[in-house]
Every structure is written in C-alpha cells, then in structure tokens.
Amino acid sequence: MKKLIIISSIMLGGIYVSANAQSGTNSPYSQYGLGVLSDQSQGFNRGMNGLALGLRYSDQVNMLNPASYSAVDSLTMIMDVGLSGQITNFEENGKKINANNADFEYAVALFRLMPKVGLSIGVVPFTNIGYNYSSKYNIGSSEESVLTTSTEMHSGSGGFHQAYVGFGWNAFKGLSVGANFSYFWGTYDKSISVVNSDSYVNSIVKTYSTSVSNYKIDLGLQWQQRMSADNYLTVGATYGIGHKLGADVEAVISNTNTQTNVSDKTTEIVKNGLSLPTTFGVGMSWRHSNKWSAGVDYTFQKWGNLDFPEYDASTGKYVMKSGLLKDRNKLTIGGEWVPNAMSSNFFNRVHYRAGASFATPYIMVNGHDGPKEYSASVGFGLPLNRSVLNISGQWVRSEASGLIKENTFRINIGLTFNERWFMKWKVE
Q1: By CB distance 3.0 to 4.6 Å, which of 144, 206, 326, 408 could disulfide with 88?
Q2: Residue 176 falls inside a structural domain
Q3: Which domain holds residue 189?
C-alpha cells in the first residue's frame, strides 16, 4: 500500500506540474492548430530522437506503444521522470533573436500487474502553446503627408496534456497487445491587439479561448521473433482513435473608440470546435544480444480532414473552416550501443544513443504549408546502481519558404528508478 501511495503521489505531482508549468515553447507557430506537438518520448528513447514503436525493453517505460508494457520484469517497479531546457534562435529577413525555455516533460511508472500483463500510469504533454511577438505596418500611401502606423501584438499561452493508465498483455508467445486510456485536458488563450498611432482610428482586440476535458485512447501491438541465438526482430504498430473533444471555442472581439473610450464587444462561440486526429504508426527494431539495437518508425496523423475554428473578417463571424490543417507524416531512425553491460568498467556499461527524424507540418500558415521539421539527437544512459540517468541533446530545425526559421537546441534529462519492490526475500 505504501508503494502505491508513493506512485500515486508522483503521478499526481506530475499532473499538477503539467497543469501549472511554464509553456515549453516560444514559437509563433504554436498559435496555429492545437499548438506545437510534443514527441511524448521518455528519457531512454529521447537520445534516439523518439524512436519507440518497435522497441521492447524489460527495464524501461515505453508509453508510445502500450504493447511493450508486457515485457516488464515481474520483480520490478520502474519510475521515470524527465525535464528539459532549450534555447531557440528565430530568424526572419536577416534578423535573429534567441529565446529560452524550461519545461517539465513527463512522469511515468510501470510494473507487472499479473502474469503476462504490465500496467503503466503517467502524465505526458500533448502540445505546448506560448508566443509573444508584434509587427508594424503603415495605413495609407507614401504620398500622404501623414501615415497611420498600426501595431499588431500577438500573444498566447496554454497547452494540452494526458494522464493515462495503460495495459500490455502478452497474448501468446511473440505477440503482445496493449492500450492507453487517457484523461485529455488543457486550455489556451490567444489574443491579437491592433493599436494605431492615429487616435481617430479605433483599436481592436480579438481573444480566443477554450478549455478541454475529454478522453484519448491509443492501441498498440508488438510481435517479436527470435532470429538467432543473439538476434531479435520486433515489429510494432499503433492506432490512435480520432474524435471530437466536446470543447466550445470562444472569440471575443472588442472595437474601442480611442476618443471616447467606448467599446463595442462581440462574442462568438463555436460549439464542439476541436478534434483529435486518427493516428497510425508502424515501427521495426533489430536487437543484438544486450549490445546494440537499431530501428525505424513511421507515423501518420490524419489532421487534414478536420475543420478548425477561424474568425472570418468579411462576415464578422467565428466559424469552422476546412483547409487550415493538413496530414502529418514523420519518419524516425535511431539506435543505441552498449560496449559491455556486465563490465566492471563504468564507461563500458554506458548506453550510447543517436537518432534523426523528418516531419511534415500539420498546420497551414496564411494559406501556405507550415514549417517542415528536421531533428537529430545524441544521448547517454549513465548507470547508477539499478537506476539510470538519461541525458540527451537534440537539435530541431523548423523552416518553410518565406516564413520564420527556427533552430532549437534542447537538453533532456530523465531519471529512471528501477527497483525490485516485488522481490520476496527468504530468511533462514
């Protein structure tokens, strides 16, 4: 009972931190869609740039494929917590600026519930929203003696999270199935303020907000085959159920006369305006004894058939529109190497990891495709008795023609506690 209380306290602490943590992004692209997508990987596979679907370990929590839970050792309780810090360089028209962020990433746990069944609980981010920038433009022609300068200020905060319970079952030799059942929640607040230098021109403020409280279900499958004495092939697949989130999205438009300070306020509400996409994933890995493993993942998120709310300036209405989102594809390769896991030499027991990914955007920006994403990572798993300190560095580049370019360098730190809580000691 004490152990269950400890686990529950860690998970509840993770939920609290997730709900109140600073946003993990400063990207202006987070104003579109549901925000900047999180990769949801844990400490061990962040060094492999999020490789997960075909990975199957008895001493790690791999929540991206719940079928992997059935591999957990029967004597082991695994807990894993992680955080990150990053610096991002934004570049537009030859101008550059940097921004720093730190964020709580995840808290997960895994143990054997019964023979052939593993149970995992945890809290992970789904998206992050956080941006604050402004732009200026002139109203009128250059021939006029006086031009009105308008300043547009954009800001937003929020994000969405998952608190999940997952099961993995080894249905029969070589084949495992699993599912994550998540409570999905979050909020966002976005605003656009237009202020004019001419006091005779009205100022306009548009605010968009929502609150989500719903569910998310993800299914997984893994098939593992022993190819020779020391070689194993694992094939994995996942399916995420797409559905409406039941959230109303509100737009409030305030038009203020700067001479009289009188505001005309209009409120528009879009009922049930947000959705989760249907998601498919396949992956494969090859493991050689306890020395090295390598794999590849492909995921597809069907955002393109989802409508999204947008303010229509021509009609003054807040309505659902198609064509604001698009299908997302992501390809990841990665692997790890351990010189000698049983060696007395510390450096021979370190896990050395690397990975790379390419992803297409799921958002449209002013009628054009959003930024493509290129990323790569290297990492280390440092053994600390039965625990592991996972440290990785990741570089992410987001770019699209004519849009802001982002280069992010991120440090991920995760600590995996691997304790034999369920061992029964015999005293003679």
Answers
A1: 408
A2: yes
A3: 2-419
Q: Is residue 369 part of a domain?
A: yes
Calculate mean pLDDT across residues 192-201.
70
For 38-94, write each residue's pLDDT tens digit.
989 999 999 999 999 999 999 999 999 999 999 998 888 899 999 999 999 999 888
Answer yes or no: are the C-beta atoms of 279 and 302 closer than 8 Å: yes
| Structure tokens, 232 | 């194993």
**Short-list 234, 243, 242, CA closest to 288:** 234
Predicted confidence at residue 147, as pLDDT, reads 59
CB atoms inside a 10 Å sphere around CB 148 = 15
Q: How far is CA 360 from CA 117, 264, 302, 370, in A?
A: 36, 41, 12, 8
Which DSSP state fits 206? E
CB 332 within 8 A of CB 49: yes
Q: Which helix (H) or strand (E) holds 161?
A: strand 148-172
Distance CA 317, CA 251 (A): 9
Report how far apart, in Å, the C-alpha atoms of 161 and of each of 15, 213, 279 are: 9, 10, 17
Burial class (CB in 10 A: 0-12, 13-18, 19+), 346: exposed
Examine the pLDDT at 350 and tell me if it is beyond 70: yes
Contact at 8 Å (CB) between 33 and 156? no
Residue 162 Cα to chain centre, angstroms: 10
Asked if residue 305 belongs to a domain, the reply is yes
> DSSP letters of 306-373?
--EEEEETTTTEEEEESSSB--EEEEEEEEEE-S-TT-SSGGGGPEEEEEEEEE--SBEETTEE--EE
pTM, 2 dp: 0.90
| CATH label of the domain that carries residue 101 | 2.40.160.60
Q: Tokens 């900047």, residue? A: 36
User: Total domain count for the chain?
Assistant: 1
